[in-house]
Amino acid sequence: MSAPAAARPRVARVYTAARRHPWVLGKLGDWVIWFGPYSPAQLVVMGGGALLLIKTYSWWSWLGPVPVVVWLAAIWAVRGAKIGGRSPFTAALGWLTLLAQHPAGRVGGRTARDRRPSLFSGVFVVEAAAGSGGGRLRKGRSARGPRPSGAVAVRPAPASGLARLLLDAADDQPLGRS
């Protein structure tokens, strides 16, 4: 016979109706539209084709039933239409969302935007370098013109050891010499 119930492995199966049946229109319970059910793509081709055939009847009437047969074949052909593994409407929705996205794209799930411009302000002063007077100077004259009587020339303290050495070297040499 069979093994005891405790020894048999338990098997669980889930059959979701959405996975077993594609999304179709035209089926209510056990009742189905003739030759249906139809996918949304088939309904669009059916409605658009019928409207086109009715509005252009004077153009194709001399062909007899050929345009109607082509229309029915088109309805049959789109029954399982897939674009990249998706239904045509889902693919079209994907293209629309792609066109609606910001051209810069997304960063971290949010729309990538340029940062708002900010004002960059700062102050700087341009001064002549110590001892560079802008040319050769004679004793008793500065780059800014004649010194008033009783004024004492004040030099800024050197900032580094190298600046101190250069300042001392400039003091040892006469100003008129190159």
Structural commentary:
The chain is mainly alpha-helical and 178 residues long. Helix content is 34%, strand content 7%. The protein has six helices and six strands. It has helices spanning 17-20, 40-55, 57-60, 66-77, 88-100, 161-172; strands spanning 27-28, 31-32, 106-107, 110-111, 141-142, 145-146. It has a two-stranded antiparallel ribbon. Strand 3 (106-107) and strand 4 (110-111) form a beta hairpin. Helix 2 (40-55) packs antiparallel against helix 4. The protein is elongated. The relative contact order is 0.06. The model has no long low-confidence stretch (mean pLDDT 76).
Brief overview, please?
This protein is mainly α and 178 residues long. It is 34% helix and 7% strand.
Compute the CA-based radius of gyration: 45 Å
**Shape field:** elongated
Class of secondary structure makeup: mainly alpha
Strand order of the largest sheet: 1-2
Number of helices: 6
Look at the structure and give the mean pLDDT: 76
H/E topology pattern:
HEEHHHHEEEEH
Spans with pLDDT under 50 lasting ≥5 residues? none
Strand content: 5-15%
